[in-house]
Amino acid sequence: MQIADMLNKIVAKNTMVSIHFGEIITHNGAGVPRTVDIKLSGTDTLLSDVRYLASYSSPTAGDICVVLVNDKDLMVLGELEP
Amino acid sequence: MYPASGEFKTAILSDHIVVSKAEVWNQDSKLLTLNVDSGKVTVSVNSGVRRTCQVTLVTDRTTANLVPDSGFDTLAPFGNELRLFRGVKFADGSIEYVPLGVFVMTDVAISDSNDGVSISITGEDRSLIISRAKWTAPYQMVSGTLEASLTAMLQNRWVDVQTAFVTTNVTVNQVVWGTESNSDPWQDSVYLAQLVGYDLYFDVLGVAVLRPFPSLDASTVVAKYHEGEGTLITSLDRNMSSKETYNGVIYTVEGSQVATPIRVEVWDEDTTSPTYRYGVFGDAPTFITTNLLSTEAEAIKAATALLDTYRGAQESINWDSIVDPTLDVNDVVYVKTNGSKTDRLVIIDELDIPMSPLASMGAKARTVRIIDANQTVELG
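Predict the joint structure of the above. Result:
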């Protein structure tokens, strides 16, 4: 059915996962949840309050980070070793 | 359904004079009004673009100056809009028009023959303006109500967009759009609305509208197509299929902005439904995962709205009828014909509204509810 086709697109789109690179601009202190502000893929757009994995222990401004984009959700996985 | 007058609704049920016109607009200025020779407006819930049009204007040699010569001419498809209307001319000479949509012209084809010069115009509703304005950088949608978030998102792509959004009481989480190149902001907006159980589209006046998907239980009947009572139907097809029918939605909410992952299940538990979960049809779930919502109550509401959309899809009814330009998709109408054993409330999924007075209107719908023999259906 066509209406089902339309809604199946919703289901299909849920599988969209990609990796991007970004730069840590600010680490937002020790509040909970802990977040950073980043710029993604070389753009000038500041994306604020992005969460990061616990294993990325000390995000620092200027770090080049690996960002997981899961559908429309962003998570910083860690720093790319310099 | 467009709110036409009672006189209009009465007139279209009997012999009447049909009038149609097209207006060409540049932003807020009307440039000219044209007579439409033929064509149609297609309205569909099955694609992100709700309304499309294809109309043909035939000019004689003296009016052939309408043929666009450059990209800046009135009928060139580079920004001017077409507004289409179909109406009724009453006995006293007055005319009432019903708007059929505001269209961005996408293609203009010119044909020159002995019969005259014909100009065919194809257009899509104003969602095209937002579709074309692709994300040029990631766009962070901050947490807020669905309507506020969508308004900000649409205005980011088209600052002059007009909106008429209901109060949803749905809070959506912060998400980022446009991380992938060439993603379509309109498709993203429709996707966002649908995931939480809402329908987003541009209406006949070119205004972006947000409203819940029609409910199967609390639907208002806006028209009746009843054989033997001045029926408007000229032909009807009915099709039943279980191939892509679901009777359950398993809705998962998880993501970096969700404190604790949520999973809810909503099933067809209506014992009168042929897809009743514990009937012979069995379990046929579909799965949806999102990071947009935060509470179980919101997830249940969204899953229920989506299940309603799936449940009706098991039986489709297509018919041709006398044209009623006030009808819209997602309208609930009552259809009764004896030959096909159709006695149903249906939700319209697609309409072909002709501009020509001689053509009939095509409709595709899915069944909402079967009507018992001793039941009567009232409008409103």
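The mean pLDDT of chain B is 88.
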